[in-house]
Q: What sequence folds into this?
């Protein structure tokens, strides 16, 4: 009798745990898998799903990360996509230009130039512009390094973004077909005493004159034409920017293989 009861208990224990997945903790709180009909009703519709649909929140993606193995290393590490592209000599100028962004771009350009000055640096621009002084710092670094800088516009290159776009290596200032370029005169917002405002206004006019001269050298337009076109926001398509001299070529796609309507 004792052996019979022990065997029955062991059989019951085996049956209770035999179908439990090995990766699920065996505890009293584990629920059995739901039937397919129940899962389908919750996924594709139903009163319960409709009531909870507004409560679902998507998790923010953040900066994508990719696996990268440093040459000579035993295993790969996860690095953000922009750091991975830096290793391929690709830089993104994809936000408002300020001192922090300018310092980061300058630091990467100086490092890539010191690593191998015979290879080009690819600068992708999708920026609404920003600080003139910060943009001029990037421009000076582009002229300082030995590596040629190939500029590519995608999206919008406005204000100082268009200036940096035009400062790329001659013949290698590029744009994608749907990109837009905008030029305008610098803006200032001085406050304080009258003499301080006067000094600030004189500096803004000096910066504008310098930008007009540099735009004229980069585009081949006369300074009078540049002065007139900078008076207000002047938007151009990629083809119009080529005719104006801001860029050299539009990277068109093969229309025979394009799948977009």
A:
């Amino acid at each position: 009798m004792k052996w019979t009861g022990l065997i029955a208990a062991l059989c019951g224990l085996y049956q209770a745990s035999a179908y439990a997945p090995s990766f699920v903790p065996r505890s009293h709180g584990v629920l059995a898998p739901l039937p397919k009909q129940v899962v389908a009703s919750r996924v594709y519709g139903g009163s319960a799903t409709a009531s909870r649909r507004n409560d679902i929140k998507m998790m923010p993606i953040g900066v994508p990360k990719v696996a990268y193995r440093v040459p000579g290393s035993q295993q790969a590490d996860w690095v953000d996509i922009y750091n991975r592209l830096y290793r391929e000599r690709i830089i993104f100028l994809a936000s408002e230009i300020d001192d922090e962004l300018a310092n980061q771009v300058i630091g990467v350009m100086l490092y890539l130039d010191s690593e191998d000055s015979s290879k080009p640096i690819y600068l992708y621009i999708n920026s609404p512009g920003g600080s003139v002084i910060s943009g001029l710092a990037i421009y000076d670094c582009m002229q300082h390094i030995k590596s040629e800088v190939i500029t590519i516009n995608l999206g919008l290159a406005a204000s100082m973004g268009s200036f940096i776009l035009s400062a790329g290596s001659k013949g290698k200032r590029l744009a994608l077909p749907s990109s837009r370029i905008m030029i305008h005169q610098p803006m200032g917002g001085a406050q304080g005493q009258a003499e301080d405002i006067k000094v600030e206004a004189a500096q803004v006019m000096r910066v504008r004159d310098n930008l007009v001269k540099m735009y004229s050298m980069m585009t081949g337009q006369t300074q009078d034409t540049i002065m007139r076109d900078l008076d207000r926001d002047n938007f151009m398509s990629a083809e119009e920017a080529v005719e104006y001299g801001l860029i050299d070529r539009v990277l068109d796609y093969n229309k025979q293989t394009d799948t977009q309507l």
Q: What stands out?
A: Residues 194-219 form the longest helix (26 residues).
